[in-house]
Amino acid sequence: MFGSAAALLLFRRESLFCRRWTDALPGSSRWGWGAGIGSPSCTALVVGGKRAAGRGVGMASPRPPKYLLVFDFDETIINENSDGDQGVKMGDFKTVYENIPLSPGMPDLFQFLSKNHELFEIILISDANMFGIECSLRAAGFYSLFRKIFSNPSGFDKRGKILTEYLAERAQEEVEFQRLFYVGDGANDFCPSATLTSADVAFPGRRKGYPMHRLIQEMEKQQPGAFRATVVPWESAAEVARYLQDVLKKKC
Ligand SMILES: [Mg+2]
User: Fold this and answer.
1) Domain assignments of the chain as residue spans, ordered by start
2) Ligand 1 center to residue 170 CA distance, Å?
């Protein structure tokens, strides 16, 4: 996990030198957060203009989802780090993964998403291994909610890159989301959430003072307005479900 104290300290030091620039290409904006020229720690390209415009005319049938919801796994979907020392034999891993409890309120959130599956496209980006993620989600009965799972991305900036490439891929398939929602907890969730636009929402877990929330707060202090997404901290995922419910009711 990048949530270690060392990684967080490194990222905090780098964040002092963050920079932002705007690409001149029409309909697109480019964001970069880096430690200096030639050594970016957190970069991404977001096609903001197309996304903000929605899908408009010519949309394929059946109607594609309006919203993209991105989940982290460790200490977000589940209530612990699945890569920790489980102290078990390899053959027992399946049982271990199947019995890791979901985070508080997560079943409520998944049930809400199941009921509204036509509106939400859901992906997962995690450092955890695919076997563990699949075991856990299948045991909980929510594996089919996820359109795609990206596991074991290496490098601090990888999640932002994955998200950017996924949006570009879906745009090529004529699926352009009105809003993005990102649910995470760690320092490595900060990079992709920093690429979100003002239409989007970042849900940083604030249990145990998790780094994603602290880094967002730090950025807001250092550069007010630079973090563009709405920030909704949560302790129970039921709070995320309630917020999304309000989105559907157009209250927020
Ligand atoms: Mg995590």
Assistant:
1) 5-248
2) 25
Backbone angles phi, psi at 113, to 5 degrees: -70, -35
CA atoms of 166 and 47, how far apart (whole Å): 11
**157 in active site:** no
Selected residue with higher pLDDT from 107 and 158: 107
| Tokens read off for 140 | 């909980």
Q: What is the dihedral of CA 118, 189, 103, 110, to 10 degrees?
A: 0
Tell me the mean pLDDT in the region 212-233. Answer: 96
How much distance in Å is there from the Cα of 211 to the middle of ligand 1? Answer: 9
Give the pLDDT of residue 91. 64
Helices (H) and strands (E) in the chain, counts: 9, 8
How do residues 46-55 score in pLDDT, each as one tens digit?
444 344 333 3
Of 22-36, 91-105, 129-143, the range with the lowest mean pLDDT is: 22-36
pTM of the entire predicted model: 0.78
Q: Is 92 a catalytic residue?
A: no
**Backbone dihedral region of 240: left (phi > 0), alpha (psi from -120 to 50 degrees) or beta?**
alpha
Report the CATH number of the 5-248 domain.
3.40.50.1000
Q: How confident is the model at residue 250 (pLDDT cuts 50, 70, 90)?
A: confident
Between the CA of 198 and the centroid of ligand 1 the distance, in Å, is 23
The DSSP code sequence of 6-54 is HHHHHHHHHHTT-------STT-EEEEEESSTT-EEEEEEE-HHHHHT-
Q: Report the separation in Å between the CA atom of 193 and the middle of ligand 1, taken as the mean of its atom positions.
A: 13
